[in-house]
Amino acid sequence: MSATDPTMARVGGDTPAPAATSADSDRALRRAKIEEAVLPPLVALLLAAVVGDVLILSFGQSPGAVYRLLLEGTWGNAYGFGQVLYKATTLVFTGLAVGLGLRAGLFNIGAESQLAAGGFCAALVGLLLPAGIPALLCLPIYILAAALGGGAVGAVPGVLKARFGAHEVIVTIMLNFIVLALLNYLTSTRLHVPDTLHTPEIGSGALPRISDVAPSFQGSAANATILLAVLAAFAFGWFLFRTRRGFELRAVGLQPHAAEYAGVHVGGVTWRALAISGAIAGIGGLNYVLGYKHYYEEGFATGAGFLGIAVALVGRSHPIGICLAALLFATLSQGGLAVNALVPKQMVDVLQAVVILAVATSVPEVRQMLRGARRSAER
Amino acid sequence: MADPNTPAASTPAIRLRDIVKSFGPVQANRGAELEVARGEIHALVGENGAGKSTLMRVLAGMYAPNAGTMEVNGRDVTGWPTADAIAAGVGMVHQHFMLVPTLTVAENVMLGSELTRGPVLDRASAEQAVRDLSQRTGLVVPPHALVSELSVGQAQRVEILKTLYRGAKILVLDEPTAVLSPPEVQELWTVLRALRDQGGTIVLITHKLDEVIDVSETITVMRAGRTVSRMPTAGATPQAIARAMVGRDVALALDAEYTGVPAAQQIGAVPAMLEVRDLAVSSASGHQVVRNVEFSIAPGEILGIAGVEGNGQTELIEAIAGLRAATGTITLGGLDLMPLDVRRRGDAGLSHIPEDRHDRALVLDYSVAENLILGQQHRFTRGAALDAGRMLQHARSLIAHYDIRPPDPSLPARSLSGGNQQKIVVAREMARDFKVLLAAQPTRGVDVGAIEFIHARLREARDQGKAVLLVSADLAEVLALSDRVAVMYGGRIVALLPRSDASPETLGPYMTGAERAA
C-alpha cells in the first residue's frame, strides 16, 4: 500500500513513454510486490503441512484424520470458532505492536510484558470504578489505562535506545522478566482475592460476549474486544501508510540516514514508536480483563506476546497480513486441544515453530525459487 | 594435449554474446555483447543503468544470465559459478570495496586463500607475497598496515592486489577512479599498463570519457542493456563516444566553459547570502575533521570546494545542513541557523543535494512521488494525513519538468537508473523555495546526459540569485561551474581563489597539502 495510487498515476497522457509499456511494468511490479508479500507465508504453511504429515505418520495416525479433527475443533463449530476469535483478538494486538516496531526498524520482544501491564492497569482502574457505569462510558478510560500501562513499559527501551543507544532487544527481553515479576508480586501480595492468583473483579465496564447475541457461541470467550482489534488494524494501516508521521516512521525503519536528512528526529521516532507499540500490546490486555474474566490474573495470556512476533513476521507487518496470521496462529493453538486425542498437542507447537522458521528464512529465497520456476514454465 | 587454458593468441580473452539478464520486471541486459582481446585495456562505457556492471557480474559468475553465451579464452563458461571464474583467473574489483577494516593489508589479501603453517596463519609469508606483488605491479601498500588506516586510493590498491593474488589474468575494474585524486588516477593508469604489458587483460568500466581516451585500446559502448558500438580508441573522439552512449549529441562537461560572474554579483557588492564563520566539527572519535572554516557566498554566486575526498567536505556540508553537531556560526541571509534543526533550516531557505544518494537523499523503497516530497512532507499534509492528490500533482509536474524516466510517480525509486534517481533529488531540492543550495557531488555516478542537465540547473539557480555551495571531487566540474574556488585539505580551507586564478595546475599543490594560502 503506498500513498499514491498507481492506477491514478497512469491517467496523465502527456508522458513521453508509451502507455502500454508503463502499464506493463506497473502490472509486473505489482505482481512482484504481491508475490513478495504473499508467497513466503503460503510456502511456509505448505512446509509446515509437510512436516506435520511426517509427524502425524510417526505417531501412527492418518494426517487426513488429524487435520479434519483440527478443523472441526476450530472452524467446524461455534464454540471452537469463538475460541479461535478470542485468541486471535489478543494476537492481533500483539502482532500489530511488534509490526509497528518492525516498520520503524525496531524489534520489540517485550509485547509479553506490555500486554500484561496493560491488562493489569485496566484491572486496577476497574477496581476503582463503581458498579453500574455503562460499558461504553468506561471503555475510553480502560483503553487509556491499558495503553498507558503497556506504553510505559514500551517507552523505557525506547528512551534508553534514543538516549544511550541501548539495544531494544536486550532491554525489552530484560523488562519482560522485571515487569512480569513486579506485576506478580503486586497481585499476589496486595491485590489478590484470597486463595487465588487474581485480583477482584472490576466494578463495571465488562464487555459483552459474542454468545450474548449468538447463543451457539456459548462457553467461548470471544467478545466485543474483537471490534477494537479490527479498529486497531485499520488505524494501524491508516497511520502507517496515509499519515505524515507514518511516512516518517517507515522512513526511519527503511533508511534512518535519509529520514534524518528529511528533517525527522530519529531518536524521537524511536522512543515514540516503542511507546505506541507497547500501548497497542497493552490494549490487547482488555480482551481478557474486560471481555473474559473481568480481573487480572497472573499469566493470563502467557505466550501471546511472543507469538505476536511470529504473527507480525508472518503477516509481514501489514495490517491485513497480521489479522490473517493472528487467525492462523489462533487456529493452530486452539486446534492443538482438539487433536489431543490422536496426537500430542505439542505437535501443533512444532507446526507453529515450522511456520515461523520457514517464513523467517524463506523471504527472498522463495521468490527466487518461484521466479526460476515461472521462467522455465514460460519457455 | 594442449592445455585448454592457453589457447591460440588470436582467441579473445572474453567473448560474451546476446547476454540477457533481468531482475524481476527490470531487464538490465537485453542482448549485450562484449569481445575483449587478450592483453588489452578495454573500456566498457555507458550511462548509469546501461547494464555495464550487470554484464561484468555475469562474467564474474555472480549472476547467471537468462540467455546468451559466455566464452573465456575460447572455453564455453556460460553461467559459471564465482569459484570457477576465480579459478579461471577472472577477478573483479568492485566500486564499493570489500575489505575488512580491522585486518591488515596482508591479511585482507590472503583472506579466502589463507597461507598457513599447520593450524597457524603464516603472516610473514603473506606479507612477503604482498611485497613481491607490489614490486612486480607497482601497487605499493605497507603490508602490515590496518586497512582502516589506509586512504581510499590505497584501499583500492589492496583490492587490486587481492584479486591479483588469487591469480587473476582478466581484471575487471568497476568505476575505479570515482574515489581517486588526479595524481592517484595517473598512478592507477601506470599500474594497469604494467599489468597489461605482463600479459593481463583489463576491462575498465567507466563513464568518464577522458579516462577512456587516456588509457584504453578498445571501447565498447552500452546503452539501455545493449551493446551499441565497439571501436578502437585511436581515432575515437569524446563527442563520438558520448553520442553513442546517450544516443544524441550532448554538451560535454569537459568543454563546458566557465562564463564569469555578472558585475552586480561581485563579492562585496551585496551582503552575503550564506556566511560561515569559525566552523568546527568533531568526529565521533573526538578529533576535529573541520577546523575554523570561514567563507561567505553572495546571492548569484557558486562557490566550489575542490579537494580529495575525506578532507572534511562531507562534514562541512552536513554541519551546514544541520545533520552534524558543530561550533561556530552559520547565517543564511542574516538568520542564525545554528539553533535550528534540519527541517527549520530547510524552511529558512536551505536546499541540500546530499552526496550519498542511496543512503541519505532517497528512501529507495518509497515511490518517486514520495521521494519528491522527502524533507517537505510537512508541507503536503491535510490534517494528519498526507495529501495524496497534491503529492501526485507535484510529482507529475516535476517528472515532466525534469524529464525523470520512466515517468511513473508510483514506481519505487530503487527501480530507476542512477541518473534518474539523481534527477529526483535535484528536482525536489530545486523545486522548493530556497535561497542557498548545498550541492555535494551532484553528478556522482550520473550519466553524461544527466550531468549536462544538472549543471544547467545549478547555473540556473545561480542566475536566479541563489547562493550555491558546490562540493565535488571532480575538479573539472568545480572549474566549469564555480565563480570562486576553495580547496579543502585536512579539514581546513587552504586556498580560496577567484575563478580566474584557479586551474588544475594552481590547485593541485593545495589539494595534496603541499601548499597553504589561507
- Characterize the quaternary organization of these chains: heterodimer
State the secondary-structure class of chain A: mainly alpha
Mean pLDDT of chain A: 86
Can you tell me the residue ranges of chain B where pLDDT is under 50 for at least 5 consecutive residues?
1-5
Topology:
The complex is a heterodimer of chains A (379) and B (518).
Chain A (H helix, E strand, L loop, with lengths): L5 H4 L9 H40 L4 H12 L3 H26 L7 H18 L6 H30 L3 H24 L33 H18 L1 H11 L1 H6 L4 H19 L1 H4 L14 H11 L4 H20 L7 H33 L1
Chain B lengths: L13 E10 L2 E11 L4 E6 L5 H8 L7 E6 L2 E2 L5 H6 L2 E4 L11 H6 L5 E2 L2 E2 L1 H15 L14 H14 L4 E5 L7 H16 L3 E6 L2 H7 L2 E6 L2 E7 L5 H9 L27 E9 L5 E10 L3 E6 L6 H9 L5 E6 L2 E2 L5 H6 L2 E4 L3 H5 L6 H4 L9 E2 L2 E2 L1 H15 L15 H14 L4 E5 L7 H16 L3 E5 L3 H7 L2 E6 L2 E7 L5 H8 L7
Parallel strand pairs in B: 3-10, 3-11, 6-9, 9-10, 15-22, 15-23, 18-21, 21-22
Antiparallel strand pairs in B: 1-2, 1-4, 4-5, 7-8, 11-12, 13-14, 13-16, 16-17, 19-20, 23-24
Helix pairs in contact in B: 13-14, 14-15
How would you explain this protein's 3D organization?
The complex is a heterodimer of chains A (379) and B (518). Chain A has 379 residues and is mainly α. In chain A, 73% of the residues lie in helices and 0% in strands. Chain A is built from 15 helices and no strands. Chain A has helices at 6-9, 19-58, 63-74, 78-103, 111-128, 135-164, 168-191, 225-242, 244-254, 256-261, 266-284, 286-289, 304-314, 319-338, 346-378. In chain B, the strands form 6 sheets. Chain B has a 6-stranded mixed beta sheet, sandwiched between helices. Chain B has a 6-stranded mixed beta sheet with strand order 18-21-22-15-23-24, with helices on both faces. In chain B, strands 2-1-4-5 form a 4-stranded antiparallel beta sheet, covered by helices on one side. Helix content of chain B is 32%, strand content 25%. In chain B, a hairpin with a 2-residue loop joins strand 19 (381-382) and strand 20 (385-386). The chains are: A mainly alpha (379), B alpha/beta (518). Chain A binds chain B through residues 2-6, 8-10, 12, 14-17, 21-22, 25-26, 28-29, 32, 238, 242-245, 247-248, 250-251, 254-255, 257-263, 265, 371, 375, and chain B through 24-25, 66, 321, 323, 341-343, 346, 352, 354, 356, 359-367, 369-370, 374-375, 377-378, 380-381, 384-386, 388, 391-392, 395-396, 399-400, 405-412, 415.
